[in-house]
Amino acid sequence: MKGKRTLYEIYWEILTYARNQKTSTNIIHRCSLNSKIAQEHIGFLMNKGYLRRFEENGQNYLKTTEEAKPFLEAFKDMYLELFSRGPEFKL
Amino acid sequence: MEINSLTRLKIELDSFKLLVTANLVGAALTLAFSISYGVTNLIPFISGEPIEPRQLPFILILISGFATAISWITRSAELMEEHDEITKGLEEIIKRYKNKPSEDGLDSSYDDEVIGIIVRCLAFYRKNTDKINELKWGGRLTGVFLLATGIPQFISFIDGSYPVNSYYVLAQGFALVSSLVVSLAAWYVPVIIKRFTETWDARLSLADDANEKLKRILEGTE
Predict the structure, then answer these.
(1) H-state helical runs in chain B
(2) Residue B94 CB partners (closer than 8 Å, separation 6+)
């Protein structure tokens, strides 16, 4: 993704994408992050209990947990509201 | 998923696309005018004839108009390319939604996709705020440029000193009037861009408030 995202927007992207189990590499590519920054974000979200790491067939995966639900719900409501009730531009 | 958000998002993306297209057209016209007048005025200079002092300001306006138009086209094209990627993403979601047999609207994966587009739009605006603001100056400069080149010719056209070829009088008159009309339209584009930037600044401010709330959720204080 091009452009400037906020920290919380990046967290939302990681958590949404990892709803179905993903590897760190998948997340790095999908969320357009560099490896170091991605590991920091993943580490933070794991400490919060929003992401869980597990192993399957010798491969490490990450998956979003139920604890992330309040954050994801709040994000969804507030961001949809930006366009449903916020200021409007029309030609 | 609120369909209202999806519709408004689409309208805003389309409106911005039209705005950038209008800018591209303005820049292309400025470029065309500066080339056509520039070639006419520079030919004697290239063929070795001296430039008369009265031609100098005119040539300077043409050169600056040409440079502005090139830079303006480049900026508009960059904005358009990035913006098109977002629009395509949204259109794909809308297409999928239309083909969806479900009767109870969109599910959470659609919400996620639409929010993904909203995040991309916000990131796009944050990154390109300065560039979009500069487009306002492009419009104003085009207005000044076309007026500066059009008004003297319009006056000489009216007082009869303009070198009018009797066969092309209509076309010449049309070209002069067009340049004046386009110059006035170019003055209006910055007004629309200002409205656009005001809307997005207000939206970014709301997004900042939302981010503060999200921070509190993450910290466990809300």
Answers:
(1) 3-46, 56-98, 108-159, 169-219
(2) B6, B10
Residue A13 and residue B116 in contact, taking contact as beta carbons nearer than 8 Å: yes
Give the pTM. Answer: 0.82
Q: Which DSSP string do the residues of B91-156 spell out, in sequence order? A: HHHHHHHHT---SS---HHHHHHHHHHHHHHHHHHHHHHHHHHHHHHHHHHHHHHHHHHHHHHHHH
Q: What is the rounded CA–CA span in Å between residue B75 and residue B171?
A: 32
Query: What is the ipTM for the molecules in this complex?
Result: 0.91
The CATH label, of 2.115.10.20, 1.20.120.790, 1.10.10.10, 3.10.450.50, for the domain at A7-83 is: 1.10.10.10
The token duo for B195 is 């409205």
Cβ of A80 and B12 within 8 Å?
A: no
Chain B interface includes A10 (CB < 8 A):
no
* Whole-number pLDDT of residue B1: 53
Domain boundaries, given as residue ranges, for chain A = 7-83
Test B119 with A11 for CB contact under 8 angstroms. Answer: no
Distance from CA of A46 to the nearest CA of B (A): 12
